[in-house]
Amino acid sequence: MKELLIAEESLASFEILGSKFIAIAEPLKAPQELEILLGELKQRYPKASHYCYAAKVLSFEACSDDGEPSRSAGVPFLDLLHKKEIAYGLIVVVRYFGGTKLGAARLARTYRETAALCLNHATFAEIIPGKEDEIAVDYPTFESLKKQAERMGATLKVLSFEERVRLLLSGDAKIVTSLASTLPQGSLLCEKDISVQRSMNHDSKQ
User: Do strands 165-172 and 188-199 pair parallel, antiparallel, or not at all (unpaired)?
Assistant: First the structure.
């Protein structure tokens, strides 16, 4: 199963009977970021009647109807995150009440459709196994590795220029392993497993 991350903020809005619904999808990489993001959104959209949301970071999940009828917003939003295989993300729908009650069924439908519209237009990245190798190579090997890493989509970070160039090689585990296998013996100093983001085409997340 894919693990998707909402890669950048996405917005959508809908108006009905005077009420305005604004959906915001945000990247969320750690549970402790949730309250910070909610606080920022409340400052951005002051005096709204409700700030309903659902959040997911792997096994951590949270949702709120924020005073709206029970299960009219938060749980349906969480269901959307599950259906779209989003492992890291926050969806918030802000409502400015227009004075006319919508009724429970229409209210729940409007919340869900606004959130779904926002997620349908969001940009995603896939979380995949990665690797980070600390290596030391001579200067000619460094120049060659730099070109190969750029071509294959790996990242090089120089730590020091001394007798040899000490650097970090990171990215997709398969790519890093392939690049490291071409280096002279003794180049690898240490290695560790990491997670990395891989950008996805818009159509691949539907």
Answer: unpaired
Please report, in tens digits, the pLDDT of each residue of the chain (206 residues total): 568 999 999 999 999 999 999 999 999 989 999 999 999 999 999 999 999 999 999 999 999 999 999 999 999 999 999 999 999 999 999 999 988 999 999 999 999 999 999 999 999 998 888 999 999 999 999 999 999 999 999 999 999 999 999 999 999 999 999 999 999 999 999 999 988 877 765 443 43
Give the DSSP H/E element, type plus range, for residue 130: strand 124-137
Q: Which two tokens stand for residue 114?
A: 């606004």
Q: What is the pTM of this model?
A: 0.75
The letter for the amino acid at 85 is E
